[in-house]
Specification:
This protein is mainly alpha-helical and about 375 residues long. It is about 85% helix and about 0% strand. The protein has two domains: about 1-125, Ferritin; about 145-364, no CATH class. It contains 16 helices and no strands.
Length: about 375
């Protein structure tokens, strides 16, 4: 566990450096480089305190390397969001541990979460646009999108695996298993897609009217909105003169000023509302189907007990990979998380198989 703490800091150092390498804004490049150095100093301090060989821990872990690949493919905003999620999880873990051990909460436990913002806000040349970019990155992207993909595949695999094992138990894997598996895949994927479409459209329709009203206020009373922006920055700890200057500069870009006001006053992220409901539904359908097809494949080429064994084996492998993927966000041991996922999935399938067996015997 102590070694994991050092590795977490080393990984953060590596990823902040990658953010700096792929950022075009000089001010933000400086911020990310400062964060990288801070994380490195934390890692060195941890290693020294626990008498660990720091030099041997300098290499980034597979998790950090995977996030870097994700950044290259999908954009480094995902990496920044992932880092912010990691910082929050670590802070929550420290607070939880202290509460269990009845230790005093000093307030320093969450300092690491706000350190990035503190550095940015103290930059002399920071602008409202740069601060807005950081806010957007923190709130709209990161681990959530990737986590949704992993969980979507997990839902498809577990639900269809359990369904197939129930039918296989009732029929000894001979009749109707393939048809039931394909029907379960299609029904589940369509249900997930429809649910995602409704969720996205409802959010868009709910907030669009509020955003329209905010734009009208910005157009009819720009001076009042500028004062609101300045107050927002001042509340974040920025000096009054600088806050008014930032608000004035930001108001020159009406769209960006509107986005900032909507986010800060209404708690709405305009970027999230730009997403296509149809596209979200399609992704949901595909991710669920990818997981649901795993236990079905063996029954396309075989039947009976051989197909059941192959389906269980393929599903167990898929569950392990999903459990391993989840460790990107939890930081837990890959083997522990993978086998835990396998255990839960097999337990659910065993229950449905047993129920199916009983029903099959009763019908027979």
């Amino acid at each position: 566990m102590k070694k994991n703490n050092v590795q977490t800091e080393v990984d953060a150092c590596f990823l902040y450096l990658k953010l700096a390498e792929h950022e075009s804004d000089p001010t933000l490049v400086n911020v990310f480089r400062q964060m990288s150095e801070i994380e490195k100093s934390h890692a060195e301090a941890f290693a020294k305190k626990e008498n660990l060989p720091f030099e041997s821990l300098l290499r980034p872990s597979w998790r950090a390397k995977t996030m870097n690949v994700i950044g290259k493919v999908f954009g480094y905003d995902y990496v920044l969001g992932f880092l912010m999620d990691t910082e929050k999880n670590l802070s929550n873990a420290v607070i939880s541990t202290k509460q269990k051990n009845k230790q005093a909460i000093t307030g320093m436990e969450t300092t690491h979460v706000t350190i990035l913002r503190s550095i940015l806000e103290k930059e002399k040349n920071v602008t409202g646009a740069q601060l807005s970019k950081m806010e957007k990155s923190h709130r709209s992207v990161g681990g959530n999108a990737i986590r949704a993909a992993v969980l979507g595949g997990n839902d498809g695999l577990v639900s269809n695996f359990s369904l197939i094992m129930g039918i296989a138990g009732a029929t000894s894997g001979q009749e109707g298993v393939l048809l039931a598996g394909l029907a379960g895949l299609l029904a589940g994927a369509l249900s997930m897609a429809l649910g995602e479409w409704i969720s996205v459209r409802s959010s868009q329709e709910l907030y669009e009217n509020q955003m329209k009203l905010e734009m009208e206020e910005l157009e009819t009373n720009p001076e009042g909105e500028m004062k609101e922006l300045a107050l927002i920055y001042m509340a974040k700890g920025i000096p009054e003169e600088q806050a008014h200057h930032m608000a004035s500069e930001l108001l020159k870009n009406k769209d960006l000023a509107h986005e900032t006001l909507v986010r800060e006053e209404l708690g709405i992220n305009a970027e999230e509302l730009k997403g296509s409901a149809v596209e979200a539904a399609l992704y949901s359908f595909i991710l669920f189907a990818l997981g649901a097809i795993v236990p079905v494949i063996p029954f396309m080429f075989s039947s009976g007990m051989p197909a059941i064994v192959l389906s269980v084996t393929a599903s167990a492998a898929g569950l392990f990979l999903i459990g391993a993927a989840i460790t990107l966000f939890t930081g837990r041991n890959v083997w522990f998380s993978g086998f835990r996922q396998v255990l839960f999935g097999l337990a659910a399938a065993t229950v449905t198989f047993g129920i199916g067996k009983l029903i099959g015997i009763s019908m027979g």
